[in-house]
């Protein structure tokens, strides 16, 4: 079907107006189709988030098993205080990892897939979910990684003797931990600059 002829503007009208009879070119049609395809493919991200949920259940199973072993040891056996602290830190470590995966899955669905099912007033959702954006998500991930790294560094320090090799390992972990801290500070500073510019 041929495109309609564009209406001629009035002689004194010199301001540009959108052409109601504009016929999109083949390139514009291709770009529009690609944009629609990419936008529709956002639902494929659900498969990644479902995989993250499966990982959470896997961590939960491991957590329950390790908790059972620890409780069995506490009730029927004996354990050194330092070993007990290390076992508890391992459980805390798994808990933080599960929380990190949960935050990524929940915020990812809200940001990149859909927010319709989060608009129900009967759902008691976290307060931060209403204000989450890519910067906030990066900060939450950064601080979660810092917490996990700190717990891992403490566990490594407590589980080893003060030999030269163990001291070197702890030093390397400490450097990595402070690198995460500096990265989080950088992300926070960049977010503040962005807010001030807007």
Question: Could you give a short description of this structure?
Answer:
The protein is mostly helical and 198 residues long. Helices cover 71% and strands 0% of the residues.
Q: What does the model show?
A:
This protein is an all-alpha fold and 198 residues long. It has two domains: 35-115; 133-198. The chain has five helices and no strands. The chain has helices at 26-40, 45-76, 81-113, 134-159, 164-197. α2 (45-76) packs antiparallel against α3 (81-113), α3 packs antiparallel against α4 and α4 (134-159) runs antiparallel to α5 (164-197). The longest helix has 34 residues, at 164-197. The radius of gyration is 27 Å and the shape is elongated.
Structural topology:
Layout: H1 26-40, H2 45-76, H3 81-113, H4 134-159, H5 164-197
Helix pairs in contact: 2-3, 3-4, 4-5
**Low-pLDDT windows of residues:** none
How many domains? The number is: 2
Task: Describe the largest sheet.
Answer: none
Helix and strand content put the structural class at mainly alpha
The share of residues in helices is: over 70%
Mean pLDDT across every amino acid position = 76
- The H-and-E topology, N to C, reads as HHHHH
Q: Kindly state the number of beta strands.
A: 0
Radius of gyration: 27 Å
From the spread of the alpha carbons, the general shape counts as elongated
Helical segment tally?
A: 5
CA-CA gap between termini: 46 Å
In what range is the share of β-strand residues? under 5%
